[in-house]
């Protein structure tokens, strides 16, 4: 094959060839002509781009991306749900526990692995070693296969599994419910629900597993339970009656951090109630047993059902295969059992049913745990830790199981209702998948929720503490799905323990007296306004306003001449204080002023609102006149020139971030439309690389590649490029390498060569939001998001672990912002205002929405003379007074509104292309009701 002519595909396993390479061996691979081989990826998706020639890459990033017509068309098509099988199951690890409850993965074949649920595993020594490894990209270039690395004590996983036995006449069929028992097993991930299908032509039944922890938007407590639901649906696919046994087992792994027999004994006992049957695992011991050992309990449970007979065995031998499991279960008794702490103790359960031909039956199992005690470390981050949030809710894993059993219709059915609501949409499956996946970081060791009600998080798993303001302000998912957590972060952390009363600054890592990151400070102010909008009333804003106002005044001190442009040293998310004037930071400042004006008006502080507006008007003009070079926005470094990190005349990914934020909170413009669009087009032209990995290798004016979030042959949006020169002036030349470890990063320069998901998502949602009906920005924004989605193809790495300096990185929750802008969603709970402006197929659109007190589905159909819109509430309530719609191509003269069969008086107003429908009075939609709206061209 010619080295200078190759296509680029969206999936494949080039990383299998290159993931174990060091940066040096990668360079040798490329130099030896391996690039063409790496780009010829073998996958089942359409070719993404190409063919390219060597000339296309003379400027490293080709201006013509050569995206294929089929790949572009797939960006907006509904398409088919991705179902993984075979080798694609190798890396699957979907977080499957509750919010803040540790970390437990569901494998692609239905096994549970990575049992990191006992306590926070944070240890500073381990953390430092992990950080060193992560400078080369961590688990992105080195994905972890199921069962590798994440182990329990002595290098072993917790012993656990399920199996099925079927009796048909004289024949008996026994299989483990995993890839060994069913080699053709398939996986469909719809976070928070993982679906596994076990089917074989030689087996007389089909088994479908739905695995999840209860997850219901707006119901934070019920979505933060230390539990995993394993809901098996067994279907008789034969023409004979079947007797079916479903068996499961779980090791007593309480106190996993010690095996000293003198410390105590493991104990398994049977628990029964009208709602459930459980095997409860505990440890009873001497005074030497402490919380540091992972003290608590776990339980394996089967929920009661009239058609299901349940038997339990507190002690069975560790089964080596499915047949041994059923042999042990058939022979076991129900007496409680104790074992020394250094001996294995395994409990088991079995559900028995009978099925007629074609009949199905659901068997619901639970794995619950109660390990609420965190490790504390004096003098470091452990001091900020409390115990887990569920400590006061329950006293054992058995109580957790009883709680879920008693509310199974609400919790289990409610989770599945949300899952159906999310996917009952006209939007592409891939977009719905990727918008929601990053939220799974809340169910990993990234996120913690303490027993005093305070949320706290790393940036990524055990990496960079403090619910960092300059990382978390990119994230849009939690504020829309679990707004209670974001409001609590604002009150208890940002404007609580992190607030500096003397100055109005916010410690960017959740502690007072820490440094203030100006980008994070501005983003936190914007989040206050978002959290206010996602509230039912204005009580939250009124409580916080005095400190919010002070935090805005803090930013004003960075703009002493009040021209809307910040100067001086400005700490930011690239881990340095940049100096001078740059649009990235000043646009965030202007965004904070816009939010400050809106909040001041709502609380009646007109004088402060006017002050914000005065500076904002100045900045609106000056950001263009000072920093726009005719194509995009640049950085003018301040003194000492050449000594600080900067992007000078480079094209930076976040240059219009403040305007991007405006589209998340429904505010106006802080940067003019023309220059904003030009900047976004430039970011696409200069920063979107069909082969981002090779750019990082070749572009060495700043730094050789050292962290990998896009491998050779993978597309992505680069942080900064220098199409007009200036790359060598971007960073100090003597601070990049550690003397002790030359491979260790010591400065932010290499960030410029990277692709980092959260930043990419931010640009993607901004392009979508700015896109006019005839604009290519919609296509470009979706292409950026889809490139990330393809980088996380299951053949290459875990699709459910988005990585940036740590696993399950929180900034990736920015992906939800794309979903919101695709829907054109706006909402203001206290005002009772909601709006939609779909960007994909507005003629026949359907998508979910969440509000302050309820969630449901919005649908619209648009023709030449009529627009028909419906809001159906699936859960909770929705109070509304105003509905904002954009009937493209239609100039309606009349509106008809009905609810519960009766007409509602409404007034139609038109502002540009937007129709504002004002209801005569505030109404409250109830669950399972529909608001029906018709806009008619003729009166």
TrEMBL record:
Q: Which InterPro entries does the entry link to? A: 6-hairpin_glycosidase_sf, 6hp_glycosidase-like_sf, GH116_catalytic, GH116_N, Non-lysos_glucosylceramidase, TAT_signal
- Report the superkingdom from the record: Bacteria
Give EC number(s), comma-separated: 3.2.1.-
Q: Keywords on this record?
A: Glycosidase, Hydrolase
Domain spans labelled Glycosyl-hydrolase family 116 catalytic region:
518-817
In alphabetical order, the GO MF annotations are:
hydrolase activity, acting on glycosyl bonds
Query: Domain Glycosyl-hydrolase family 116 N-terminal spans what residues?
Result: 93-407
Database matches in Gene3D superfamilies: 1.50.10.10
What name does this protein carry?
Answer: GH116 family glycosyl-hydrolase
């Amino acid at each position: 094959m010619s080295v200078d002519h190759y296509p680029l595909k969206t999936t494949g396993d080039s990383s299998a060839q290159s993931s174990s390479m060091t940066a040096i061996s990668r360079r040798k691979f490329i130099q030896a002509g391996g690039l063409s081989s790496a780009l010829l990826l073998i996958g089942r998706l359409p070719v993404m781009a190409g063919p390219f020639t060597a000339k296309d890459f003379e400027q490293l990033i080709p201006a013509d991306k050569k995206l294929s017509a089929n790949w572009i068309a797939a960006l907006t098509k509904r398409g088919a749900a991705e179902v993984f099988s075979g080798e694609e199951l190798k890396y699957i690890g979907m977080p499957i526990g509750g919010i803040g409850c540790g970390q437990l993965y569901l494998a692609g074949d239905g096994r549970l692995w990575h049992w990191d649920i006992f306590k926070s595993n944070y240890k500073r020594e381990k953390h430092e070693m992990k950080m060193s490894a992560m400078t080369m990209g961590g688990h992105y270039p080195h994905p972890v296969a199921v069962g590798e690395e994440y182990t329990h004590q002595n290098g072993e996983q917790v012993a656990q599994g399920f199996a099925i036995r079927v009796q048909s006449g004289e024949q008996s069929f026994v299989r483990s419910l995993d890839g060994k028992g069913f080699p053709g097993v398939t996986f469909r991930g719809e976070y928070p629900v993982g679906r596994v299908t076990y089917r074989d032509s030689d087996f007389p039944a089909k088994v479908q597993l739905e695995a999840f922890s209860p997850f219901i938007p707006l119901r934070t407590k019920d979505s933060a339970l230390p539990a995993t639901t394993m809901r098996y649906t067994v279907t008789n696919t034969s023409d004979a009656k079947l007797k079916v046994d479903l068996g499961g087992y779980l090791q007593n792994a309480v106190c996993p951090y010690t095996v000293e027999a003198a410390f105590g004994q493991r104990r398994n006992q049977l628990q029964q109630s009208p709602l459930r049957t459980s095997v409860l695992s505990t440890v009873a011991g001497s005074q030497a047993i402490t919380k540091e050992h992972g003290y608590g309990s776990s339980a394996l449970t089967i929920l009661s059902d009239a058609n299901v007979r349940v038997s339990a065995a507190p002690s069975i031998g560790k089964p080596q295969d499915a047949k041994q499991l059923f042999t042990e279960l058939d022979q076991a008794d129900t007496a409680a059992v104790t074992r020394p702490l250094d001996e294995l103790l395994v409990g088991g359960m079995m559900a028995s049913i009978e099925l007629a031909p074609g009949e199905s039956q659901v068997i619901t199992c639970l794995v619950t745990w109660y390990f609420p005690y965190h490790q504390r470390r004096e003098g470091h981050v452990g001091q900020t830790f409390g115990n887990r949030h569920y400590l006061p809710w329950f006293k054992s894993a058995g109580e957790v199981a009883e709680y879920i059993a008693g509310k199974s219709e609400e919790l289990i059915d409610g989770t599945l209702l949300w899952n159906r609501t999310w996917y009952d949409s006209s939007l592409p499956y891939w977009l719905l998948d990727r918008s929601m996946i990053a939220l799974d970081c809340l169910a990993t060791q990234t996120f913690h929720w303490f027993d005093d009600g305070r949320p706290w998080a790393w940036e990524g798993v055990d990496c960079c503490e403090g619910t960092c303001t300059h990382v978390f302000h990119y994230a849009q998912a939690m504020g829309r799905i679990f707004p209670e957590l974001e409001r609590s972060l604002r009150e208890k952390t940002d404007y609580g323990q992190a607030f500096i009363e003397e100055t109005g600054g916010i410690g960017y890592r959740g502690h007072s007296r820490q440094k203030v990151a100006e980008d994070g400070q501005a983003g936190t102010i914007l989040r206050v306004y978002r959290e206010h909008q996602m509230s039912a009333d204005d009580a939250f804003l009124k409580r916080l306003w005095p400190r919010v106002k002070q935090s805005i005044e803090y930013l004003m001190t960075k703009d002493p001449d009040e021209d809307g442009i910040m100067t001086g040293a400005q700490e930011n998310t690239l881990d340095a204080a940049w100096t001078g004037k740059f649009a990235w930071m000043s646009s965030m400042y202007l965004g904070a002023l816009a939010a400050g004006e809106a909040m001041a008006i709502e609380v009646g502080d007109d004088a402060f609102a006017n002050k914000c507006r005065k500076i904002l008007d100045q900045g609106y003009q000056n950001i263009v006149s000072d920093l726009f070079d005719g194509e995009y926005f640049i950085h003018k470094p301040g003194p000492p020139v050449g000594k600080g990190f900067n992007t000078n005349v480079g094209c930076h990914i976040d240059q219009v971030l403040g305007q991007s934020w405006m589209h998340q909170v429904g505010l106006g413009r802080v940067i003019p439309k023309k220059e904003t669009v030009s900047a976004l087009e430039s970011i696409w032209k200069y920063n979107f690389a069909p082969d981002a990995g090779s750019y990082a290798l070749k572009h060495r004016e700043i730094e050789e590649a050292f962290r990998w979030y896009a491998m050779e042959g993978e597309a992505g949006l680069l942080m900064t490029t220098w199409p007009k020169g200036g790359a060598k002036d971007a960073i100090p030349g003597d601070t990049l390498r550690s003397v002790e470890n030359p491979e260790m990063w010591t400065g932010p320069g290499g960030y410029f060569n990277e692709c980092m998901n959260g930043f990419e998502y931010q640009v993607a949602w901004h392009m979508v939001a700015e896109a006019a009906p005839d604009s290519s920005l919609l296509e470009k924004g979706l292409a950026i998001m889809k490139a990330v989605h393809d980088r996380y193809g299951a053949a290459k790495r875990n699709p459910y672990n988005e990585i940036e300096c740590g696993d399950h990185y929180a900034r990736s929750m920015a992906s939800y912002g794309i979903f919101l802008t695709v829907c054109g969603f706006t909402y203001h709970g206290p005002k009772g205002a909601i709006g939609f402006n779909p960007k994909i197929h507005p003629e026949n659109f359907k998508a979910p929405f969440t509000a302050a007190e309820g969630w449901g589905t919005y649908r619209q159909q648009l023709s030449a003379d009529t627009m028909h819109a419906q809001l159906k509430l699936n859960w909770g309530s929705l109070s509304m007074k105003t509905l904002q719609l954009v009937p493209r191509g239609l100039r309606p003269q009349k509106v008809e509104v009905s609810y519960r069969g009766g007409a509602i008086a409404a007034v139609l107003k038109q502002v540009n292309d937007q129709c504002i429908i004002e209801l005569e009075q505030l109404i409250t939609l109830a669950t399972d009701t529909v608001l029906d709206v018709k806009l008619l061209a003729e009166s």
